Amino acid sequence: MTKAVLDISALFEDTWTGIPNVVAAIAQRALEDQSIEWIFAYETIPIPRSVVLDFLTRHSGMGGLPFLADAAWNGQVIAEAEAKNLVAVFPNIKPVRRYFGREAIIVHDLSPILTPEFHNSDNIFHFANRIREDVKTSDHVFCVSQATLSDVNTYFKKPVSEMSVIRLGAEFDPYELSAGLQQLRPNIQVEPYIAVIGTLEPRKNGGILFEYLMQNPGFAYQYRIVFIGRDGWLDEKTRLLHRLEGVGVSPDRVQFTGYVSNAERTALMLNAAFCVYPSFFEGFGLPILEAGALGKITVCSNSSSMPEVMPGNCVFFNPQETFEFVEAMRTAELRAAQTRSRGQSLSDLLDRTSIFGWDECYQGVAKWVREQ
Fold first, then answer.
1. 155, 185, 207, 363: least buried by Cβ within 10 Å?
2. CATH number of the 174-354 domain
3. Short-list 139, 124, 144, CA closest to 22
4. In angstroms, rounded to a whole number, what is the distance separating the alpha carbons of residues 167 and 76?
5. pTM (whole model) above 0.85
6. Matching fold, domains 2-169+357-371 and 174-354
7. Domain ranges for the chain
8. pLDDT of the chain along its 372 residues, tens only?
9. Which CATH architecture has domain 2-169+357-371?
């Protein structure tokens, strides 16, 4: 049986968004895979399967750091002699390089390098100093989109023969879907709203909503505007609130949820009239896939990887052009009205979301591991 290491460092975060969710999905399937003997690790410290399962059950790595401290203190590491006979997969950065016999990395995007204006200097410096060597010392590079693969090939000259695309997935708890659908019953009055999805950071381009409202203030009284996502960096939420002051609509027509649980996020997306994802640049754009899996129309940038994700459910626009955004919003409103008139049952929703899971992503990783 093939023996391999999966770095799960990202799972030790208290709250999971983005990359931790990707690692969790891969780890869940690794636990179930009988053809590969996976060793889960934080850098070079092996993590018992029971700890991994506990994290996945709670959807949080809270409380895991004391275990790491004890393991490090007691010298519980994968010995270098053993490591040379192992294959290792790093779903994010590489905490060690050329420690294992064969190594692969997942590259999610190169945004700190390609769009540095949307990142703080510390993040740019850290990423730029790591990513080149991470790619160079990897026998294989998995990319989450064709756009990201092209970027890695262009900027780091990694041969295409040493790379492949693994498509990310979207999964939903049936109970959470059922709870979300309950809010759509005719006897429950829910004020119409649109969902702007994504972490609050400059790259996500949330300010274009306020440019739109300045031209179309009446929209805010047809629909409440709900930003779904945790606070990010460069104090973007404060900047957006300042923009709101000059728009001319009541502040209570725009809401910021902050970090919400998976159940809350699913319900908010499912019950929205439509979704908006105006980001300037993405390595993939997982919220676009999630919204499309739920049957929602998304006003989406036509930049970087985003046209690859769910084109049939998107209305595209140039994120640099407000007039294109205005037209996209009008089109989405019309398409969303047609979609709502048809409605969705739980069985239909379960059938729809089931085809967007993470199996394809995991199998791409597992196939490379088995071939080593």
1. 185
2. 3.40.50.2000
3. 144
4. 34
5. yes
6. yes
7. 2-169+357-371, 174-354
8. 789 999 999 999 998 888 999 999 999 999 999 999 999 999 999 999 999 999 999 999 998 888 888 887 877 899 999 999 999 999 988 999 999 999 999 999 998 888 888 777 777 777 878 999 999 999 999 999 999 999 999 999 999 999 999 999 998 888 888 888 776 555 445 689 999 998 878 888 988 988 898 888 889 889 999 999 877 655 677 777 777 777 778 888 888 888 888 888 899 999 999 999 999 999 999 999 999 999 999 999 999 999 999 999 999 999 999 999 999 999 999 998 877 655 677 788 888 888 899 999 999 999 999 999
9. 3-Layer(aba) Sandwich (3.40)
The amino acid sitting at 109 is D
Instruction: Please tell me the total number of residues recorded for the chain in this structure.
Output: 372
- Which structure tokens are listed for 307? 């046209």
In angstroms, the Cα distances linking 321 to 68, 123, 212 are: 48, 28, 11
Identify the residue whose tokens are 């059922």.
Answer: 178
